UniProtKB/TrEMBL annotation:
Organism name: Alloscardovia macacae
Domain spans labelled Helix-turn-helix: 4-55
InterPro entries: DNA-bd_dom_put_sf (IPR009061), HTH_17 (IPR041657), SinI_DNA-bd (IPR010093)
Name of the protein in its database record: Helix-turn-helix domain-containing protein
GO molecular function term, any single one: DNA binding
Length: 65
């Protein structure tokens, strides 16, 4: 898998819709970067993995309450 993914590729990887990923970005909840050339939004797999794992752990903590 390439180092950087597009919004569509990232949404597919996370198994969510692109609109859901956009909403999470607007809320400041999803990790992303801008490529300097063209100001294109890109995502690194490692950042998505860490973010998704954190959300799973937070969900497990909330389930115990």
């Amino acid at each position: 898998m390439q180092e950087y993914m597009t919004l569509e590729e990232s949404a597919e990887y996370l198994r969510i819709s692109p609109s859901t990923l956009r909403r999470l970005i607007h809320k400041g909840e999803a990790p992303y970067q801008f490529r300097p050339a063209g100001r294109k939004m890109v995502f690194r797999k490692i950042d998505l993995d860490m973010w998704a794992n954190k959300r799973v752990q937070e969900g497990k903590k909330n389930d115990k309450r």
